[in-house]
Structures are given as C-alpha cells and as structure tokens.
Amino acid sequence: MQQLAPYSAYLENEINAIDFPKDPSNLYDPLRYFLSLGGKRMRPILTLLGAELFGESKENALSAALSVEVFHNFTLIHDDIMDEAPLRRNRETVHTKWNQNIAILSGDVLFVKGYQLLVKQKPEHLQPLIELFNKTAIEVCEGQQMDMDFESRKDVSIDEYIEMIRLKTSVLLGCALEMGAVIGNASETDRKHLYDFGQNIGIAFQIQDDILDLFADPDKFGKQVGGDVISNKKTLLNLHALILATDEQKQLLWKLSTETDYQVKIDKTKALYEIIGARAICENEMKKYHSIAMKSLEEIQIGDSAKQPLKALAEFLMNREL
Amino acid sequence: MQQLAPYSAYLENEINAIDFPKDPSNLYDPLRYFLSLGGKRMRPILTLLGAELFGESKENALSAALSVEVFHNFTLIHDDIMDEAPLRRNRETVHTKWNQNIAILSGDVLFVKGYQLLVKQKPEHLQPLIELFNKTAIEVCEGQQMDMDFESRKDVSIDEYIEMIRLKTSVLLGCALEMGAVIGNASETDRKHLYDFGQNIGIAFQIQDDILDLFADPDKFGKQVGGDVISNKKTLLNLHALILATDEQKQLLWKLSTETDYQVKIDKTKALYEIIGARAICENEMKKYHSIAMKSLEEIQIGDSAKQPLKALAEFLMNREL
Fold it and tell me: What's the pLDDT at A149?
C-alpha cells in the first residue's frame, strides 16, 4: 500500500537497528535471525498512525511501536513451538533451526526487550502504556490457550470462537493504536474509540483470513489454499457450516474430514460451504465487524482528514484478493 | 530463622491472595498450583527488608516484592521444561502435571503478572524499578543459556562459571534488594551498595550450594547428597578439582565419571576432592564473596542497627549445615 510505504521503510530500518549483545550467541543469534524475517509490520505502523492522529510525531512513538512489534515476534516464536511449525515466512522457525529450549529462552528475552523499548517512553505515560501492554499480553496468551483447548473440543460456539480470535490477534491491534493515542495525549474516550477501531478491524481481518484460506485465488494467495480444511481446523466457516447443515450435509462433512485425496477434500468442502451458506454468513460477519470499527473511528473527536491514513489502512486490510 | 518468620508469613498470605481468573483453566490452574508449592520466599523478603532499611514500610514495598517472587516462579516453570525436571519441591512440575505447551504459555502469563504487580508502585518509581527488573530478567535468561551451553563444553573456566551463577541466580537477589531501596528513596550510591551486597551474598550462597550438594550431612540435607556428581554436572568443586589435579588424579576423576555404582562414585569423588584441595578452595571463594558482600553493606549510609535484619539474613544463608 503506497501511502504506508514510508512508515514500513522507517520501521524496517529501526527494527534492523535493534541492538542485541553478541553473547550468549545461542540466545541472541535466534533473535537477530527472527526479526530479520520481515513481515508486514502492521502493528507498529498502527502505533505511529495512532500518535500522528493526535498530532504527535512518529519519532516520539517509535519505541512503543517497536515494543509492539517485538512482543508480536516473541509470541510467534513461542506459538511456533506449541504448534510444532517447521516454517515461518518460508524460513525455518527458531525451534527448528536451533532447538526448543533456545526458542523458549530467546522468546523470553525478546519479551523483556519489548518492555525495555516501552520504558523509553516519557515517564508520565509509563503507567498507562505498561498497564495496556500487560493487559494485552495476558489476553494474547489467553487466546492462544483457548485456541489450543479448541483442538480437542467438539462444542465450540461461534461466540467462543470470536472471543478466541479477539484475544489471540485483535486486542494487539487495539493496543498498538491506543498506545499511539496515549503518547499523543488523547482523551480517555478517544483512546477507547481508537482501541475499539483496532480491535474490530482485527476481528474482521481474522474472519477474512478464515474465508481466504479456502476461497482465495491460488495464484494470488501467498500460501496453500485449503490448509485449514486439510488439517480439519476449526474456523468460522467450519463452525457456521456445522450449525447450518442438514443432517445429510453433516454426514457429508463428517466423511470429508477423513478424505485422503486433499484436492477432492478441498473442492468438495468448498462447494458444500457455498451451498450451506457458510461463506455468505462469514462474509456478513466480517462486514459487521468492519462497520463497527468504522463507527468507532467516526466517533473520535478529530477532523476527517487526519483519519484518512487509518481509513486507507482499514480499506487495504479488508480488500485482500478473494 | 526466627527473626524473618513474620515476613515469611506476611508474604505467604499475600502470595496466596494473588488473583487469577478462572478461565482458561488450563492457563491459570497451573499457576495457582505452582505458586502454592511454597519455597523460602527469600527474594521478596529481601525487597521488604531493602525498603525498611531506608525507612519505608513493608506494605508499600509489597507489590514489588511479589513481582520478584512471581518472576522467580516464572523462571522455574520454564527452567523445569528445559531441564526436563519431573519434580519441583517434591511435587510434579507444570510440564509433567499438564503438558509442555501449557508450561510455556502459563509461564509467559506469570511473567506478565510480575509486571502487573510492579506497575502498582508509585509512578515516580516506575522507570527505575522497571529498568532494573528488565535488566535483571535478561541477565537471568543469559545465565540460564550459559548453563545450558556449559553442558556440551569442556573448557569452562572458573571465571565463566562464576559469571554464570552471578547471572542465573545472584543478580535477582541484588535486584530484589535494590527495588526495596528505590521504594525507600535511597541515594544512587546506597542503592548500588545494597545491590552489590545481594549479588555477592548470592554468589557465596550458590558456591555453598555446590559444596553442600556433595558434603552435606545426608540426614540434614533436603535432597539427595551427590546429585551433581552422579549426573557429572559442572560445579565449582568439579572445575577446581580438574585444574588442581595431577595427571593421575585426572585419570581417576575421568574413570569415576563413568562409574555406575553411585555410592562408590560419590564416596570416591568426595575423597578425591578433599585430597586435591577443591573443597578448601571453594570454601575460600565462598568466604571471599561473603566478605565482599558484608563490606558493601557496611558502606551504606545508615545506622548499624537498621542493618541488623540483613546481617542476620546473610548469616542465616551462610550457615546451612555442612
């Protein structure tokens, strides 16, 4: 996205400049490696935009933005262990390239690094910033635990699923934006609106992710289409399909879960989700959260032109290729 | 130790009162369980004593004291995974009682809880407290990494070993005390002296631990005597013995490392360490760090009577049964 390119470039540069000691190399080499793997850097961009919305410079919000990105990378290192993921951004994960103990410990250190960056902010902002960061960090862990618990549960409700994605991924977007608002001395009310904007955009984005995983154009999608279906992962599509399905369709879905020809499994599941109406209902939910988000943005007591970058970002996030 | 009993009781009570949500129970049950396993609560006592030394009430230092104890327990949960330890204080470790993923994630949450407790301190103390906490947390991880690296190394020097125990265990004692000093508005110089006192007592204590592991009276020692020898662990005794040994003694030690009759292994190693002089040199090192610690305590610009509890604590720590 053209408009955000200068922010990405600025952050990429600053992320590369994060300094780690040489020794113990088994602790710090994995962190240099992992942070260099890149990513959209969406979360720290949100902090910079949040600060600018209230007239504060992006430079003054930088250390908080970096703390959010560093925290996000810490969660990825630990999540990759828990998910036994061999790859991240097409490169080896830390526990694969080194070992699991090193991934646990270097993750822990990266988490502290997040606090070290955050504590560089002005003393008068420390209490609200750290309280927000703490609350969010705990929620992200709760979301990850719920996600793991869901694997062995057969009675996950739509509400529980939405709560899981809210905690696991969306609260961090809200937090990233609100940190910017704190640094920009926004009112409590505006802070809350900006947080809600981020959180609801996050939920909409995550629902879109579930849809894209199955319905994306394989030529334009960065990863394998149908991955969630192959692994029988619980997604919003899947949960809605099971609720809406007739007994016969349920039988079919049940059969498909053990289908070993993956292309057949994907194609038939996809067709069934369309017929059942699961795709349509998920798209509606996505639009609902997007619209709640935009209303929160409207509520903020700032002129429309200042909100333009955030609106553009929300549009960008919601218009990935289907 | 009689004099510290009221502090222990006060802290035990407050640790039991730390509140965790009910759900997700797989995240929070392990924390309720682990914190209830007890322990000497030595680190939070240090924070309370540090504050009282400078005339501040223990109540005002409480949340910082709890943050140190909570942090310590977080490191134990993660260390137990890395060390594949089945038991902690004769009870199952978290990764044994639940599973490894739960131990990683609930450990992460406990770490955040430490920051949540610390941020309850007065706003004007937040920056120094959190900076000290961050620095210490990183050092503890570095110490753990060094310890793991040592397992596969044959050239560990005495200096490296001391640096490892300083980072892994001693800096947290210094941090616990200095936090109390920050809360008690001590001067920078006094803060530094109190930190040094804690750090050097910690090193002396850890050296004593190495000695006790082999030379303690089995009837009075809480755990199996000779555990380090059985597992061929690098300890200060072992490193000094290898430096001081004649070629013949080195051969003997080498042979003993593969001895399968553990009682023979322990008895012969013990006798050899005495003859070589490894025990004596370790006891001297222990006394050296103890004496450096006591000098730092002397330097603090506070009347002698106020220092009495800390002196008593140092005596207590250094006079475990040999």
Answer: 97
Helix (H, G, I), strand (E, B) or coil at B122: coil
Is A92:A41 a contact under the CB 8 Å cutoff?
no
| Percent of chain B's residues with pLDDT above 70 | 99
The minimal CB distance from A126 to the residues B81, B127, B138 is found for: B127
Q: Which residues pair with B88 in a beta bridge?
A: B91
Report which of A284, A269, A277 is spatially closest to residue A229, judged by C-alpha positions.
A269
Q: Residue A55 domain-assigned? A: yes
Interface subset of B 71-130, CB within 8 angstroms of A: 78, 81-82, 101-102, 104-105, 108-109, 111-113, 115-116, 119, 123-124, 126-127, 130
Strands B87-88 and B91-92, by their bridges, are antiparallel
Cα-based distances in Å from A272 to A210, A217, A265, A266, A290: 16, 18, 11, 10, 26
CA-based nearest residue in chain B for residue A22: B142
How much is the pLDDT for A321?
Answer: 59
Length of chain B, in residues:
322
Q: For residue A3, give every residue at least 6 positions away whose Cβ sits within 8 Å of its Cβ, in sequence order, or none.
A: A309, A312
Residues of B in contact with A105 (CB under 8 A): 78, 82, 141, 144-145, 148
Shortest CA gap A229–chain B (Å) = 24
The predicted complex's ipTM stands at 0.95
Q: How far is B24 from chain A (nearest CA, A)?
A: 7
- pTM of the full structure: 0.96
Which mean pLDDT values do the consecutive 10-residue runs of chain B (322 residues) have?
89 97 98 94 97 98 98 98 94 97 98 98 97 98 97 95 98 98 98 98 96 89 86 95 97 95 96 97 97 98 95 87 54
Instruction: Tell whether A146 lies on the interface with B, counting CB pairs under 8 A.
Output: yes
Amino acid, single-letter form, for residue B56: E
Same domain, A193 and A276: yes
CA distance A129 to chain B (A): 10
The answer to the question of residue A3 being in a domain is yes
Tens digits of residue pLDDT in A292-310: 999 999 999 999 999 999 9
From B101, B119, B138, residue closest to A148, measured CB to CB: B101
Contact B26 A148 (CB under 8 A): yes
Domain housing A238: 187-322
Q: Which residues of chain B make contact with A101, given a CB cutoff of 8 A?
A: 81-82, 148
Work out how many domains chain A is built from and give that number: 2
Based on the fold, state whether residues A192 and A300 are members of the same structural domain.
yes
pLDDT tens, residue by residue, A138-169: 999 999 999 999 999 999 999 999 999 999 99
